[in-house]
Specification:
alpha+beta, Pnp Oxidase, Chain A, nine-stranded antiparallel sheet
Length: 196
């Protein structure tokens, strides 16, 4: 259920993200993604935010990767954005679901051709006997798609995290940081200040 507080939280994120982009810092869209598999063990990695609106936060990956398998087993995840340039952080937790094929296709065509071929060549998260094996696979797919658009592989798509919690953190002297949390409880969005 989207309420004014939820929309406020999304807009607040977009304002902070726009500020990060304006500073021209390396990879302002970098976010840490935490997932948990069937075994209950968490894992974490950095991915790139590709879209954010009231529907949620979108990233793309090989769906056969470790994170893809974990999201299949447990469709809940957490994100952490940290912009050291101005010492602010945003945490996001929520449910994850695949984006539509139409949305994935629309994003796919914006990717560099080399990245498109790389998505075919990489068996993401599987053991790689030697670097030469990946380079060989890349050349094979480069040849296969020579002179034509590279289609999106069926195993490559996006996920959208739909927030159930968003927390904004801002550094302050003496470790008296500002923390403000937006979260859904009993079907409605709430906002609270949190001790640092």
């Amino acid at each position: 259920m989207q309420t004014d507080l939820y929309i406020q939280a999304i807009q607040r994120f977009q304002e902070v993200f726009t500020r990060a982009q304006a500073l021209e810092i390396p990879e302002p869209a970098a976010m840490t993604l935490a997932t948990v598999g069937k075994d209950g063990r968490p894992s974490v990695r950095t991915v790139l935010l590709k879209a954010c609106d009231a529907r949620g936060f979108v990233f793309y990956t090989n769906m056969h990767s470790r994170k893809g398998r974990q999201l299949q087993a447990n469709p809940h995840a957490a994100l952490c954005f940290f912009w050291q340039a101005f010492m602010e952080q945003v945490l996001v937790e929520g449910q994850v679901q695949p984006v539509s094929d139409t949305e994935a296709d629309a994003y796919w065509v914006t990717r560099a051709r080399m990245s498109q071929i790389g998505a075919w060549a990489s068996q993401q998260s599987e053991l790689l006997p030697e670097r030469a094996a990946l380079e060989k696979r890349y050349k094979e797919f480069e040849k296969r798609f020579a002179g034509q658009p590279v289609p999106r592989p069926e195993h490559w798509s996006g996920y959208r995290l739909q927030p159930q919690l968003m927390e904004f953190w801002r550094s302050r002297p003496g470790r008296l940081h500002e923390r403000e949390r937006y979260f859904i409880e009993h079907g409605s969005w709430q906002r609270q200040l949190i001790y640092p």
